[in-house]
Structures are given as structure tokens and as C-alpha cells.
Amino acid sequence: MSTNLPRPGQVKQVTSFSNPLVKDIKALIAQRKHRQKSGRFVAEGLKLATDALAAGWEVDMLVLGPEARDSAPAREVAATARARGATILEVSTAVLAAMTRRDNPQMVVGVYGQRLLSASALEKAFAAAPQGVWVALDQVRDPGNLGTIIRTADAVGASGVILVGDTTDPFAVEAVRATMGSLFHVPLARQTREGFREIAARWPGTVVGTHLKGSSDYRTIDYRRPSLLLMGNEQSGLPQEMAEACSALARIPQAGQADSLNLAVATAVMLYEIRRGDLSLT
Ligand code: SAM
């Protein structure tokens, strides 16, 4: 009788800095090209490993430092990962530090399969959440901002984040770190600017762009569902052709000398306003 269970992964002791698996992980951390080509990425920490496994993400490798081998929760995560076919690498702190280029590396480092919704899966996700709130990010450059926005989208229960145009890689290690595990819970998709404008043109609810010259105070807009929130690039904001794709342009009032709010902060302000009536402490 055949079963669909994966074969348990191997356990390997790695002491050499030039081991090919160590080099592979280093390249996944340092090179977007390598991440794209292999469809994998690195996430550091036991919490992220726990989140990834609980959410059913594909785990390719789990690297354990000496402390992890003495930790019951880490051993449990490693056993689950191994049962799902992951290779377990047992390494020294020095190898872990070199691999992650950190003086104080996390005791667990994981390599996972990337997940992005295809165009048809995105359409299905729209249809499945008629009351949903989606965030779209136009050409966002800073991985820390992107990770923070994914974390905030998770916190408010948004349906997903659409990365428009040349938006930075959500699987870069700095972005993953900033998500604090939310990467494993928030659906992500990529779209061209043209693709976004097509989605916006047939969007059944409000498409709200944020703009420093927006004519509407963000607290006065009727956010009809599903709502689609479009945020601009850190330096240049939203270009005209993207602003024109929106049914409303919101501005968050400011009082002091700051030119603008940080992108992730502005996204949080907007998301909490859009979700104002939905979130409570009970
Ligand atoms: N120099 C840019 C500009 O002229 O738009 C500043 C961009 S700002 C740092 C990055 C993004 O955050 C903006 O594109 C917008 O989406 C959002 N944002 C920041 N402050 C905002 C405000 N007061 N009102 C509306 N959106 C804001």
C-alpha cells in the first residue's frame, strides 16, 4: 500500500564553512537572484519556524545551532520539519554566525519555499472576500517598510498585500525579519502597474490611494467593501497614472514640520481607519 507521506529528511552535521549547503543558505540570504531562481528563502528564528510549519509552508532545511539541540521546543520543530522531508543541519555557533552574517545568530534558521498567489488565485481570493481589505504597494523599496506593512496587514486582518511593479522582495531576509512571522499568514501577490490599474478599474468597492496632495481627509472617506488601499513609493509617492486609477485620494493631516509620514506608519493609520468599525478588544 502506498502512502502520500514524504520520506523523512536527513540529519547532517556540518562543520565546514565551505559546505555547499552553507554556501546555498548564504546565497539565499545575500542574493535576490538566487532566491528567485530556487524559489526558496531564509527565515531566522524558532518562532518563524513554528509559524511556517503551523501554516503548512514547505520547509526545505532547518539549521540548528548547539543551543537549539538542547531546547525541547526547537527539537520538536525539527522533528516536525524532518517528518515533512526537510534536511536538518546541525552546526556550530561559528558556522551559524558566518552563514547569517550575524554576531548573535538565532539558534534556528529555516529555508522555506516561496509562496505568491498566481493571477488566477488572486482573483479567487478577491471573490472569496467580498468584505475584504487589500493593500497594494507601488514600487516600495525598503524591505523593513515592506515587512512592517505585512505585519500590520496581518494585525488588522487584511485579506492580502499586492506588490505592484518593482516592489522590493518580500523574501529578503530584512523583510522577513520585519514581518515577525506574519509573512506566513498574509497572502501576497505581484502585479504590474498595468495589471493593478485593470484590477482597480473593475473593483466593486473603494480604491483609495494615499497622496500628499489628496483632496480628502482620510477620516471622511466612505470605505466601501471590498476596499483596496494603494500606497506610494518612499521617495516619489504615487505617480499620476496610479493616482488616477483610484476612486478616492486620501491625505492624513499633519501639523509639524515633517514633509510626510513614514510609509509603514501611513499604511497603519489608513488600515486602522478602514477597519475602524470591525476591530474590538473582545
Ligand atoms: N515625497 C513623497 C511624496 O511626495 O509623496 C513622500 C512619500 S511618503 C514617505 C510614502 C508614502 O506614504 C506616500 O506615497 C503615501 O502613500 C504615504 N503617506 C505618507 N504621508 C502621508 C500623508 N500625510 N497623507 C497621505 N499619505 C501619506
TrEMBL record:
<dbReference type="InterPro" id="IPR051259">
    <property type="entry name" value="rRNA_Methyltransferase"/>
</dbReference>
<protein>
    <submittedName>
        <fullName>RNA methyltransferase, TrmH family</fullName>
    </submittedName>
</protein>
<dbReference type="GO" id="GO:0003723">
    <property type="term" value="F:RNA binding"/>
</dbReference>
<dbReference type="InterPro" id="IPR029064">
    <property type="entry name" value="Ribosomal_eL30-like_sf"/>
</dbReference>
<dbReference type="GO" id="GO:0006396">
    <property type="term" value="P:RNA processing"/>
</dbReference>
<dbReference type="InterPro" id="IPR053888">
    <property type="entry name" value="MRM3-like_sub_bind"/>
</dbReference>
<dbReference type="InterPro" id="IPR013123">
    <property type="entry name" value="SpoU_subst-bd"/>
</dbReference>
<dbReference type="InterPro" id="IPR029028">
    <property type="entry name" value="Alpha/beta_knot_MTases"/>
</dbReference>
<dbReference type="Pfam" id="PF00588">
    <property type="entry name" value="SpoU_methylase"/>
</dbReference>
<dbReference type="GO" id="GO:0008173">
    <property type="term" value="F:RNA methyltransferase activity"/>
</dbReference>
<dbReference type="InterPro" id="IPR029026">
    <property type="entry name" value="tRNA_m1G_MTases_N"/>
</dbReference>
<comment type="similarity">
    <text>Belongs to the class IV-like SAM-binding methyltransferase superfamily. RNA methyltransferase TrmH family.</text>
</comment>
<dbReference type="InterPro" id="IPR001537">
    <property type="entry name" value="SpoU_MeTrfase"/>
</dbReference>
<dbReference type="GO" id="GO:0005737">
    <property type="term" value="C:cytoplasm"/>
</dbReference>
<keyword id="KW-0808">Transferase</keyword>
<dbReference type="Pfam" id="PF22435">
    <property type="entry name" value="MRM3-like_sub_bind"/>
</dbReference>
<keyword id="KW-0489">Methyltransferase</keyword>
<dbReference type="GO" id="GO:0032259">
    <property type="term" value="P:methylation"/>
</dbReference>
<feature type="domain" description="RNA 2-O ribose methyltransferase substrate binding">
    <location>
        <begin position="42"/>
        <end position="118"/>
    </location>
</feature>
